[in-house]
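Worked Example 4.2. Consider the chain below.
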Amino acid sequence: MERCAEPSKNYRNETAHGPVVLLQPRTVQQVAALPFVALEPAIEVLLVTSRRRGRWIVPKGWPEKGVPLPECAAQEAEEEAGVVGPVAPVPVGTYRYDKRMPAGYKVPCQVFVYPILVRQHLLTWPEQAERRLQWVGLAAAASLVDDRNLAVLLRALAANDGAVLRVFARKTDEAA
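Applying the procedure from the previous section yields the following structure tokens:
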């Protein structure tokens, strides 16, 4: 997957200093994990804080070339939240946001969200000192996350009491 924006369309514009070509950035992909546990009566998900601004998010990052997206999601969950477990083979949904790059510009980003049924929480993990964690219900997670499009996805999951997550948990338990 690509890690930086590339022009997909060019637009010409005239300014006081002459013609300018405006580059329309191509949408890039990221992968996210939605770590969860199926408790009765509720589903709880694990949120982490972003490193720079401390906003509540789900573990996410850039996919690695040649690595299946579900495996990338599992890696993000382990590195950012210290959780391990089976990952769904298909995303539970997607959302868009503008990724702020270190140089200050923004890149449109499509995030594919893969549920991970948490079976183990590690005692130590790579980004432990850089993030805070919080287990919350789906509706509470939708209220806490900073990104409104992620909140929409979480509210949709909460609207049917996390049915798709429960089905994944049940099938995973039956296969074990």
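The chain has four helices and eleven strands. The domain at 27-175 is CATH 3.90.79.10 (Nucleoside Triphosphate Pyrophosphohydrolase). Compare this with Example 4.1 before moving on.
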